[in-house]
UniProtKB/TrEMBL annotation:
GO terms for molecular function: transferase activity. This is Glutathione S-transferase. Keywords: Transferase. The lineage of its organism: Bacteria, Pseudomonadati, Pseudomonadota, Alphaproteobacteria, Rhodobacterales. It holds the Pfam family GST_N_2. The keyword Membrane does not apply. InterPro entries: Glutathione-S-Trfase_C_sf (IPR036282), Glutathione_S-Trfase_N (IPR004045), Thioredoxin-like_sf (IPR036249). The keyword Transmembrane does not apply. It comes from Jannaschia seohaensis. Residues 12-78 form the GST N-terminal domain.
Length: 290
């Protein structure tokens, strides 16, 4: 039972990030197709997913379409109740749905002033009163969620749909150095270290596409995720492995990691691994076995 997911540029598309996390962070099978925003390719790709006009959008195994991130969250929760998108406790579940709905429709000042950009951290940004008001409301919601949480770093204890929806907010706080309380910063830091989000950012680095419409503020710094383990692309093999750790196909592209050469079936598989080798369980498991 595999879903098909259409997503935009990983470094910039906050809504695509939410949709992808609803699969990857919950271990649900999905084939992700990438389209390039602000290009002719975007409209052509979406035409095959009509009536969708935005990303993310999902084609279900039965042939249905979920054309909005809220629809994806609810559809997956209905189809896979064991995955844990919503808290089991009914009071916490009601709060989680409310937080997600408010995120889906609100915080326009923060979104407008701080578009998500996972390639660099912006410096010299001074938040407006409207942005500060949004941040205060977000902190109120996060604090309320924690009063209903079991143990764990996430809003309701275990990772859930609410965390997927607020992941781009956390990335905006990190990417613009926005002022938040120590408790809120700990929640932001949990996202920065989250394996699924590290994989998403690594894919954005592999795409290596800069969109000028996502303005950054000088001076810029490296985006504040944990420093990746060192790896570098290599022009040729031979490699330790004959099959790509992700697709199982024959290797054609190579990287060097821990003084050994590893192979992948295409440049994207290699480059996303170069960007953050430790974020990819299939690769780290292969390297540990060899």
């Amino acid at each position: 039972m595999t879903y098909d997911l259409l997503i935009g540029d990983c470094a910039y598309s906050s809504w695509s990030l939410r949709g992808w996390l609803l699969f990857d962070a919950f271990g649900l099978p999905v084939r992700a197709r990438h389209t390039r925003m602000y290009s002719d390719e975007f409209a052509r790709d979406l035409a095959a997913w009509a009536p969708a006009r935005t990303v993310p959008t999902v084609r279900t195994p039965e042939g249905g379409l979920w054309t909005d991130s809220l629809a994806i969250a609810e559809g997956l929760a209905e189809a896979h109740p064991e995955a844990g998108h919503w808290p089991a406790d009914p009071v916490a579940r009601a709060a989680a749905r409310s937080l997600v709905a408010e995120m889906h429709s609100g915080f326009t000042a923060l979104r407008g002033a701080c578009p998500m950009n996972l390639r660099v951290k912006s410096g010299g940004f001074t938040p407006s009163d409207a942005v500060l008001t949004d941040l205060a409301r977000i902190e109120t919601l996060w604090s309320h969620a924690r009063t209903l949480a079991s143990d764990g770093p996430w809003l309701f204890g275990a990772y859930g749909a609410a965390d997927a929806f607020y992941a781009p907010v956390a990335m905006r706080i990190a990417g613009y150095g926005l002022p938040v309380s120590p408790d809120a910063q700990r929640y932001v830091d949990a996202h920065l270290s989250h394996g699924a989000l590290r994989r998403w950012r690594a894919m954005g680095e592999a795409q290596d596409r800069t969109l000028d419409v996502y303005e950054v503020h000088a001076p810029t710094e490296r985006f504040p995720m944990p420093a990746p383990l060192p790896a570098r692309a290599r022009p040729d093999g031979p490699s330790v492995n004959a099959a790509c750790p992700y697709s199982g196909k024959a290797v054609t592209h190579f990287l060097e990691f821990e003084d050994r050469i590893w192979g992948f079936c295409n440049a994207f598989c290699r480059d996303k691994t170069v960007a953050d080798p430790g974020a990819w369980p299939a690769f780290t498991a292969m390297a540990a076995r060899a």
